[in-house]
From TrEMBL:
Biased composition annotated in UniProt, kind: Basic and acidic residues: 514-524
Intracellular or extracellular location(s): Cytoplasm, Cytoskeleton, Spindle; Nucleus
Pfam families, per the entry: TPR_16, TPR_8
Acidic residues composition bias: residue spans: 529-550
The protein's name: Anaphase-promoting complex subunit 7
Function: Component of the anaphase promoting complex/cyclosome (APC/C), a cell cycle-regulated E3 ubiquitin ligase that controls progression through mitosis and the G1 phase of the cell cycle. The APC/C complex acts by mediating ubiquitination and subsequent degradation of target proteins: it mainly mediates the formation of 'Lys-11'-linked polyubiquitin chains and, to a lower extent, the formation of 'Lys-48'- and 'Lys-63'-linked polyubiquitin chains. The APC/C complex catalyzes assembly of branched 'Lys-11'-/'Lys-48'-linked branched ubiquitin chains on target proteins.
Keyword Nucleus: yes
Cellular-component GO terms for this entry: anaphase-promoting complex; spindle
TPR repeats: 340-373, 476-509
Record pathway: Protein modification; protein ubiquitination
Keyword tags: Acetylation, Cell cycle, Cell division, Cytoplasm, Cytoskeleton, Mitosis, Nucleus, Repeat, TPR repeat, Ubl conjugation pathway
Assembly, per entry: V-shaped homodimer. The mammalian APC/C is composed at least of 14 distinct subunits ANAPC1, ANAPC2, CDC27/APC3, ANAPC4, ANAPC5, CDC16/APC6, ANAPC7, CDC23/APC8, ANAPC10, ANAPC11, CDC26/APC12, ANAPC13, ANAPC15 and ANAPC16 that assemble into a complex of at least 19 chains with a combined molecular mass of around 1.2 MDa; APC/C interacts with FZR1 and FBXO5.
Amino acid sequence: SMSVVEHVREMAAAGLHSNVRLLSGLLLTMSGNNPELFSPSQKYQLLVYHADSLFHDKEYRNAVSKYTMALQQKKALSKTSKVRPSTGNAASTPQSQCLPSEIEVKYKMAECYTMLKQDKDAIAILDGIPSRQRTPKINMMLANLYKKAGQERSSVTSYKEVLRQCPLALDAILGLLSLSVKGAEVASMTINIIQSIPNLDWLSVWIKAYAFVHTGDNTRAINTICSLEKKSLLRDNVDLLGSLADLYFRAGDNKNSILKFEQAQMLDPYLIKGMDVYGYLLAREGRLEDVENLGCRLFNISDQHAEPWVVSGCHSFYSKRYSRALYLGAKAIQLNSNSVQALLLKGAALRNMGRVQEAIIHFREAIRLAPCRLDCYEGLIECYLASNSIREAMVMANNVYKTLGANAQTLTLLATVCLEDPVTQEKAKTLLDKALTQRPDYIKAVVKKAELLSREQKYEDGIALLRNALANQSDCVLHRILGDFLVAVNEYQEAMDQYSIALSLDPNDQKSLEGLQKMEKEESPTDATQEEDVDDMEGSGEEGDLEGSDSEAAQWADQEQWFGMQ
């Protein structure tokens, strides 16, 4: 007949975790009260099955303590078993073969430690496993942990080990590329499998594409992924579309980015990855209702991912509710400490709340996680400018320009800093002209150039620049600035049209509203008094909102300490 421990093992194998937990708990008490009741190997098994059921109930700290006891029991077990002469496998009892694997126990412990955010302990326990005995999942977990801890060489070694064991481990390939291992070297590790299996010829192109992604060469990455996407067999792949959307976003082409995100979302209504960037783009465009709907949809899919919290936080941020945005960003970081978008959200909220030094810490961490993303550097540079550290901003902008290369985006970022210093106005001009030669429709460059022309009161030039930029695209800010320039040359009727277009694109654009109201006052001096009353009422309405967000600040403040605020 089966022993009671075998019954526990059978229930564990059958997935009856709650039943295992109760029975093993009772049996362990019996064993404590009478140490002779179970053999060392039976005690080891009971402890492991009990710990597994705790793990299943997400009680990680308790599980770790039981796994640790199990390993001690196993030590005692191997000491006693060494006494017996072993003649190869023949002598090993059938029972020892169904003992839970010690390596599996260590892997489970490492999982517990990562859930408890004790990465050092997780690394220590996996590191203790001799490299010959490490399974692919152990190597993969180690590689990710090393990478997170900044131990890049150990990380590379572990990823390579995963690929040696499983040459089609694509995430390990991405891991290597993200640690600046050359695409050619990575491809050479998979070449045998590509040649031996039909319909895998796309894989070398795929590796090439993501090598470009990780060196920050957005243009070639976009072209390479587009070439994959056109292949009939890989058409409509959600991962490729998501990567494309992200690359367009990095390249500052928000229109195409939004289009690709929409396409991906239509193909997979449960898509979560990348939706935080999508929400941010919609919020930037003033489409706050769409952002709200997206957030609700994502929360329905999963509230255990960072993305829904970030999307909701973007809605708060662009509604000027910074305390709430800060709380939501912190919650997202708690769920996923690698979420760049969450770090950027929290950093921007801190900056707008005047907590610039804390904001800087968040932007730096974002840069560490995504060294090829320009927006991380932009956030940091805005912090430096906000705290009048123009020199630090200049050093940073020059570094970005050197490391990411001279393209329209890095030229414009450097020009933005140069505009802040009276000494470097001419340099700013040269940089912006270079940027606009490369990309005449790059909105950020157009906006900065217009700012320069406005300072020099060259309104006609500004009007020409803006009309030219608006020929192929519609953008709220460009229409608004064109309105300002038209006012300066007394073209009131057309200025009103431009402000109206701007407001139709983004109904929340405060500056366009002010421009329009100013003009309406000038248009009808007779109704001026009446006009001002309306204005005052609106003003107080807005005040009320801001006060609301302050009392809200108090309300969120008690929550801050719970969410790993610095």
